[in-house]
Every structure is written in C-alpha cells, then in structure tokens.
Task: inverse folding
DNA sequence: CACCGTGATAACCGAATGGTTAGGACCCGT
DNA sequence: ACGGGTCCTAACCATTCGGTTATCACGGTG
C-alpha cells in the first residue's frame, strides 16, 4: 500500500473513471489500473466496481476513500508544514476537558497569546481522559488541562494540581427532589459519557441509570434546562455564580455534593517536556491565569477567536 | 516519501532513539537511519538532531511528527476499515451548520436511526459553508444540512429547501438599544465567524465592527448572556420560544429582522448521490423530521448519544 | 452484428525502496 | 585517552513500485 496507489485510488473514486484519473495524473491508463489492482489485492476488496459508464465505490471502497483522502492530503501537507516551520513560532497544543473548553480555554489561551504571541502559537482541543492519556505520550499534544492523569506510572506523564474547585448540584427554583438521587432526572453535558470525568464519576456514585440521564451539547444548555425545572445538573460552583445570583438556579445539597475537586495540568516528565509545555505550565501559576480560571469572561472578540483546527474523519 | 519511512520516523521520534526504533521494528539500525535520511533529503530539514544520548525533534520535525503519526495510524486503520465493511451497514455522513448541530442534528439522526438502524449508521459533524463545499464533492460527506450551497453550478451540488424559519434578534428585558445597531454589543456563537452563515451575513448587513462582537462557544451561552442584558443576539425564532415565553428574552425588531430564511439539504446530483444520502433526503420531508426541526427536544439519553468521530490534528 | 470506449491483464524495464554488513564519526562516561 | 555507546555513510543486493506497450474482456450504441 503506497501513497501513490492511494492517490490514484482517490482520484479514480472522485472522478468515477480510471481513464480520466490517468489523464489528470498524466500517466497511462494501465498504470492507474494496476495501482487499483494492487490495493484490491492488498485489502481483499474490490473497492471500485464497474457501474455502467464508470466506476462506483463498494462499501469497503467508500470506507477506504475517506481514510485515503486524508492520507493523501496529509502527505501533501507534510512538505509544506516542514518548510513553513523554519523560523516560525513553536506550536503549543493543549487538550482540555469539556468544562474547561466551554468556559476557560479560549480566554486562557488568549491571555497566554498576549504574553507570548511572538514565540508561541497556541491552540486547544477537547479530549476525553482516555484520549489525553493516548495523545500526550505520543507528543500529539503538549499539555492537558483538567483531570488528574496520574495512576499509570509507566506512561511518563506528570500531573500537577492547578486549582481547587467545588462541584455542586444545581436545579430550578421550583424543582422538587423526590425519591433517591438515582431517580431524579439528570441533565449533563457530553462529559457525562466519559466515565473518568467528574460528571461521570458523580453519576456512577449515585448509580444513576441511563434512562434518567439526558445529555446536552454543553453545560450552559444543561443548566438552562435545569432552570426550567427539568431536573438537576452538576456544575462547577464558580461557573454558575451568575445564574445563582440571578436566582435562576439554586444549589441542591446531597451526600456527594458539594464536593471539592481539582484541575490538574499534565505534561510529559520534565526532561521530555516541550519548551511550549514548560511555558504554559508556568503561566498557569500566574495570578492572571488563576483569575481567568476562577471567573472567566464569557465570549471573546472574533479576531481573537480561532476555532481549534479539527479535521473530521469518519473512521 | 513512503509510509514505511514515515513509520520509522514516528517511531524514532517517539522513542527518542534510532537504535531503539530499529529494535522495535526488528530491522537493522542503518535501515532506520536511512529511512530518516531519505525523509531529511526529501523535505529539506534535519527533522531529528542528536541531543546528548538520543534524538530530539527540530521544529520542522515536530510539525512532521503530528502529520506523520496521523498518516501511519490511518494506514493501519485502512485495512481494518475495509475488512470491517463487509456486510456492514452503509454510513451516512452528515454535515451541519452550528445552529443545527446544537439543537437539531442529534435528535434528527436519532429518529433517522430508529427507522433505518439496520441499514444505516449515521453520524454528523459541524462544518462551515466553505468546508461543506469542499467536502461534499469529494464524497467525504454525503449530505449537508443548513445553508444554501447553490451558486456554483460546476460543483455538481444540489440544494433543496427543507424548512423556512424566522431569524429574530433577542435581548434581555432591561437592555436599552441606543444608537445604531452597529454600536450594540452583539453576542453570537462561532458561526459569527463564518461570513456565509446567517449570523455572518447579519453582522455584515449592519456593518458591525469586530470590536462590538463577542463570540460564545454556542448559541445557548450567547442567549444566556443576552438575557443578562449584555447585548443582542440573533436567533432562530422557534428555538428561543422557551426563553421568550419565560420572559428571559424579548424580541428586538430592526430593519433587517425579523427575516425569513430557509434551511436547505444539499447532496450531489441525483445520479451521483449515495444511497444513504437518498434516504436521508427523503426522511427530511417526513412529518416526523419536520416536527423535530420545528421544536427539537433538548437532550438525549446517553445510550443514543454518540459524539461524532473527530480526530484532532494540529496541522 | 460490428464498432467504439471502457477497464483488466500480461510482459517488460528502469528506478527506488528496504534490507543487509562493514566501517567511520561523534558524544559521553570512567 | 580510552572504551562503549550512539548515529551516519558506503557498498551491495533482492524486491517492489511505477511506468511503458500490446492484448484481451466487457458493455453500450450505432
């Protein structure tokens, strides 16, 4: 399986014709045909089948197409990326939990950028605990902010506490909690599906069945639903201060809440740490960063706003 | 540049040693060394330099590392993906605008799954208008739901209207609109940075300067800020019904709002359409789908909730 | 039916990839 | 300075890849 073979395959799939692909590539038609044949044999699937006056993808071919397109695109990116790196600021890649992504990551990186703009080019992406554990040792990211990732000494990861926070349970003024917590309607964001997150642990602690859980795309939405009296939602105390002051939400105490938890910053062991990771780790202990994590402003100006560079792959 | 060369490079970068990589690969050390040398020459960068008792990545090498890791991983995925495709339901890949992603995509796909679960395996991802235009013709996605993508006849895309909706402007009860709209504080979600989105067009229509725009991670958050009197926010009328009924928000009329707009479904031309795309397109005209788009339930049960398959790449 | 145009296959060939062993250059420790 | 580790390079060889031309098989279309 070669990149050129994959490139030929992608082109044929896109154009729906071997001949046309050969023309575009400027090679003879059998060359393309044989590239496809090699892939067919290697993968044990027809990939492309005759369809009247052209070629159609098989189901297997369609799976391959998405992957191969990515690979080909990455291949041509590689050269450009390496060349562009000369004399360019280093990149800082930050992984964050969903809560931090929603409220803290953007202002934090904005502030970090103001200080180090010339030297670092920072961006962030959401990841589950499992993903963080996989991405950091591989250097696919420099820093993770959120959960404690210790517990596997062999991974070479170092987690350090950054900020304590209180986890509380909030609900609307008119919600009446009846029965045990496991029977309440629970309103959570997508971190509820990550068993290693605060939310996941809380749900497990109360043995909440799946039928009592509703997952919202973000915490703001879950809290809005809670304010409507639809159920209870976990929250970080400092982040719902506004809604509590306005009386939209009230705190509900249980045997497990309020609870104290802690955000951690995780990097590789000091000697393997990237310079960018070093700087961000230090930045997190500055008063400015602390301030931002305690009461982040919501919303940023669009010139500062740059969504993380995601590439969507249906694998 | 070969996949095996990239694989060797990734392994060396990960282990910090040529020798160790050679051991893992079960080949001689010069074999690995020469793979690196070939990449070095091809890309014109040292990529890895001696660093005491091992190898460290140069800036260019670190850029390549992220890309190469992806490529290698995709390469090993490819085989599995093709083999797994045999006798497997077809995949439906849906691109949606951010508004639809936040409120509609999940229940819609959930309903679609209930009807066709055995035959289709549907998932969705957020994309900007530009991304949709790029991904659909390449068959990296089957269907786009949201903006009208016509206007470029050569692309082979077909957009059909699905549902009319009203764009309104909402604000808190105590917000006093003074001066021209361009001077108001505008609270938008990330689609405000997509010039082809409804929000982007509205902001351009009022010539709102960037300094007056605050970008929130999602619309629910922007509306919550508007309810706090922090400014005005665009909204789809049917989606803020709850907040309007509760009196948290009120409608603000302007020369450009209320405006009527329309969601479109976009696919390839009928003869190039995938079967999955055909089915979803038909499903969208059913009463069930219409109902969902007009008043989507918020939140889904976690067993139904499967986040889209994202792979984060810092390119 | 004969005639296109399409894709698959065969036979051949140059070039590169990827592997080996042997030896040189370098850093680091004692 | 020496030995032991590392990485780089050179010379050699088998294999595969990617290209060609020629030929066959198939499906519409006149």
Result:
């Amino acid at each position: 399986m070669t990149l050129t073979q994959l490139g030929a395959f992608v082109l044929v799939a896109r154009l729906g014709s071997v001949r046309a692909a050969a023309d575009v590539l400027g090679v003879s038609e059998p060359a393309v045909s044989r590239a496809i044949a090699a892939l067919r044999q290697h993968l044990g699937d027809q990939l492309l089948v005759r369809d009247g006056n052209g070629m159609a993808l098989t189901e297997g071919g369609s799976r391959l197409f998405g992957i191969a397109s990515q690979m080909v695109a990455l291949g041509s990116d590689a050269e450009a990326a390496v060349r562009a790196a000369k004399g360019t600021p280093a990149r800082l890649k930050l992984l964050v939990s969903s809560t931090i992504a929603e409220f803290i990551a953007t202002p934090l990186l904005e502030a970090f950028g103001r200080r180090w703009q010339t030297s670092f080019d920072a961006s962030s992406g959401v990841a589950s605990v499992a993903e963080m554990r996989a991405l950091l040792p591989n250097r696919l990211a420099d820093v993770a902010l959120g959960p404690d990732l210790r517990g596997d000494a062999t991974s070479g990861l170092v987690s350090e506490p950054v900020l304590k926070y209180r986890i509380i349970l909030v609900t609307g003024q008119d919600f009446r909690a009846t029965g045990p917590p496991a029977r309440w309607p629970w309103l959570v964001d997508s971190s509820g599906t990550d068993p290693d997150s605060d939310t996941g642990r809380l749900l497990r602690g109360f043995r909440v069945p799946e039928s009592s859980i509703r997952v919202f795309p973000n915490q703001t939405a879950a809290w809005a639903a809670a304010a409507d009296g639809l159920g209870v939602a976990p929250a970080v105390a400092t982040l719902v201060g506004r809604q509590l002051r306005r009386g939209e939400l009230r705190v509900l105490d249980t045997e497990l809440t309020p609870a104290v938890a802690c955000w951690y910053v995780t990097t590789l062991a000091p000697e393997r740490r990237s310079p960018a990771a070093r700087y961000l780790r230090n930045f997190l202990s500055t008063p400015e960063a602390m301030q931002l994590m305690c009461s982040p402003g919501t919303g940023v100006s669009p010139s500062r706003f740059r969504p993380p560079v995601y590439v969507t792959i249906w694998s």
